[in-house]
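A note from the maintainers: we've had questions about how concatenated examples are separated. There is no special marker in the raw files; a new sequence line simply starts the next protein. For clarity in this README we add a label.
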Amino acid sequence: MSNGTTPNWLQALERRLGRLAVPNIATFIVGLQFIGFVLVVSDPDWRWRLALIPESVLQGEIWRLITFLALPISLSPFWLLFVLWFLYFIVDGIENAWGAFRTTFYILISVLLTICFSLVFMVPITYVGDLESTLFLAAAALNPEYQILLFLVLPVKIAWLAWLTGAFVLWRFFTGSWVDRLYLLAIYSNYLLFFAPYLYWRVKQRYRRWQFKRQLR
């Protein structure tokens, strides 16, 4: 993966706070997901014990600020293996491109803003699939030409899947309630912060090439 999408301000921040990085954070995230799966499968009530419930946090159950990340994305053993493999693949790929600090910071922004959204608007967080989605979008932006096997058979460029993911997020944004919109802004703000200037630059470059080709006709 190329790291040409790294914002300049992030490079400056890394020089100051680089020691706070979490190396191989993919293992940490996948490990939490696996633990959450085992707990919820053994007792479905664990889903609510792990969830980020604002009222419970304010009553002293601070561990929910971390344990909600263990909420399993899937309860199917087969799909869980695929999800965990894919999650490790994309996070490890991001870390290989950016390094441990930048990857940690990217994840931390999304997690912290999700927590703030939950506590401010008193909305419980019982699903973390959108966090994986932000990671997938980052991996696609860093290496848009990479191909993955859809359903383990069909080769598809990761950028195409990212466009579909982005379209689905926009659909949810425009059709959801104002609370849904605030949630999406909170959890996807890391992607916008890191990649919006770069994506704008790419669109601008393509537009200029299109204008240039028109002038040659």
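[label: protein 2]
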Amino acid sequence: MISVMIVEDQTIVREGLVRLLQFSSAITVVGHACNGKEALELLDGLAPDVVLLDIQMPVMDGFDFLHAGQQICANSSRPFPRVILLTTFADRHYLQRGQQMNVQGFLLKDVCFEELVLAIQRVHAGENL
């Protein structure tokens, strides 16, 4: 079973992702957060395999979460989870910055359920999207 944490500021999107992923027998949502700061507070206790991460969020955006989380994990024995950036915008800058920060996947929010599940499975298996 692949454990997933969802980090998304839009409530309807976050709750929708949680409910959708409940239909997958291969994935369990272990937690969700509405911004990067909240996600950092949950990260160690949840230890997800994969994080679905929005980029644009209040308080702490996705890139700041990545930077802080990677630093925390570098100073501990726990590896940082694999990450799929989930965004509304097909912005080359986001893709490049994500690659520089060792993100494993990049998906637009208009992805269908089957593609999302497959992406999570592929990233969990070590592939990059």
